[in-house]
Design goal:
With about 160 residues, the chain is an alpha+beta fold. Helices cover about 35% and strands about 15% of the residues. The chain is elongated, with a radius of gyration of 27 Å.
Length: about 160
């Protein structure tokens, strides 16, 4: 059977969505790929059933409840973009915050500390680099000034 790239993508989404449905049936929460695939599959189904753009968007929003996903999934998947075929043609559907709002302390969050933060306290502040002639730059030990490692000496005898 020969499939177009779009048909192959659709089958991959369906397969991952079926895995997500089985995961939910076992009483487990979904990880990010499973949750995204399930939302995309529901949006594809709504579009195929003749739903409007808003109907497809709503299908993506209600496909997975925030309590059905693992902690951090809402932080990772902040947006889902899916191209679907509607009655008026192909449209890009963008679902923002599909699994609820992310947290301020989730993956990728920046945390500030008070005062100076030592990045490598076990390292000494003394540099072992040697200065390059005529410049303010230094060259690390074992590296030539042109950036290449020196070749080991070979004997010609």
């Amino acid at each position: 059977m020969r499939l177009t790239p779009t048909e192959e993508d659709r089958l991959r989404i369906f397969s991952a969505a079926e895995l997500a449905r089985r995961t939910l049936a076992r009483g487990l929460q979904l990880n990010a790929p499973e949750a995204i695939a399930l939302a995309c599959d529901e949006m594809h189904g709504a579009a195929r059933g003749g739903a409007s753009y808003e109907g497809v968007l709503q299908a993506g929003r209600v496909a997975v409840a925030p309590d059905q996903v693992l902690d951090g999934v809402a932080d990772i998947a902040q947006e889902i973009r899916l191209e679907v075929l509607l009655d008026e043609g192909s449209r890009l559907v963008v679902v923002r915050a599909p699994f609820g709002p992310g947290s301020d302390d989730g993956p990728g969050a920046t945390r500030s500390g008070e005062g100076d933060v030592p990045l490598a306290p076990e390292r000494s502040l003394r540099s072992t680099a040697m200065p390059l002639a005529g410049s303010g730059w230094t060259c690390p030990p074992g590296i030539r000034c042109d950036g290449r490692r020196p070749r080991p000496a070979t004997s010609t005898s």
